[in-house]
Amino acid sequence: MLKFTIRRILSAIPVTLIVISMVFVLMRIVPGDPTIMILGEEATDAEYAQLREKMGLNDPLIVQYVRYMKQMLTGDWGVSMHNSLPVFENIFSRMEPTILLTIYSTTLAIVIGIPVGVIAARRRNSVLDYCVTTLSAVGMSAPGFWLGLMMVYLFGVKLGWFPVQGYVTIADGGLLKSLYTLTMPAICLSLSHQATLCRYTRTMMLDVLHQDYMRTGHAKGLSDNVVYYIHGLKNAAAPVCTNIGFAIASKLGGSVVTETVFNIPGVGKFAVESLNRRDYDQEQAIILFVSIMLIFTNIMLDIVYKLLDPRIEFD
Fold it and tell me: Per DSSP, which regions of 78-227 are E strands?
């Protein structure tokens, strides 16, 4: 296991370098001049040129790339062009609502999606199964921004159950108040994940329902819940865990649509703001942060696979 973990970590290094390089190039070819975003349209051409020279934007692209890589290797990931603060300080200042939203929405998806998937598999080809699969397809296809707007209109404007937008920090209102303000965004963000988990769980459970160990469990007189949820679900859990892991990583990287619709000051909304400002170093840091989360999640999932099924061998 230790040898495999080390190999997986080393194999992630070239992937990270490729991501850094691609993001660096893409940010430079996106239309827009960051000096205009900083100085505004009222500045003179001389002021634009002076700022571009100060920021090193007049240097050839390869020179900018080498300089950026040197800074990365020395731990200097740059500062935001917007507020002159270190990029990761800005990211961490936006992490609280994103972390809470990730935990809240993922918990809802797991608590609802997995049991419903197991029930649908147990009642295969029944009316209940058809209803679950239909609702899952609808949940997977419904656009996130549309769901968010409909929830804002119904539960926020018409019924007044939840705030329409915004976020109250834990320091200002306490944990329960923060979770209350995130309830609608969490439900909206979890619906698609619930549908996906339900489909995955149903499919994998159908593959294990007729295995010998399932029949043995029934023959030993074990209860249905023990047979299905302990023996069956454990052996069907690998793809489900993959879906959960990557969903958590992507949510931590920022749920752009949800945070934008509900005006939550998280990492996703911050990424949109940084891109609009052409804040190169900040946007690169956000994307790299997301990439590192996905790579780390992939490594952890491989370890979880081994724990779930000791028969798995890594070559």
Answer: none
What the block records as the tokens of 101 is 């939203």
The whole-number pLDDT of residue 310 equals 60
Among 143, 244, 128, CA closest to 194: 244
Joined together, the tokens standing for residue 56 give: 């090193």
What is the spatial distance between Cα 258 and Cα 290, in angstroms, rounded to a whole number?
Answer: 17
Range 152-157 average pLDDT:
82
Give dist(CA 288, CA 27) in Å, integer.
13
Residue range 169-180, pLDDT digits in tens: 888 878 888 888
Which residue in the block uniquely carries the two structure tokens 């990211």?
A: 91
Yes or no: say if 198 and 120 are a contact pair by the CB < 8 Å rule: yes
3-state secondary structure at position 309: coil
Domains and CATH numbers, the chain: 16-90 (no CATH), 95-265 (1.10.3720.10)
Nearest to 185 by CA among 213, 219, 148: 148
Bridge partners of 79?
Answer: 86
- Tens of pLDDT along 62-114? 888 888 888 777 777 777 777 778 888 888 888 888 888 888 888 888 888 88
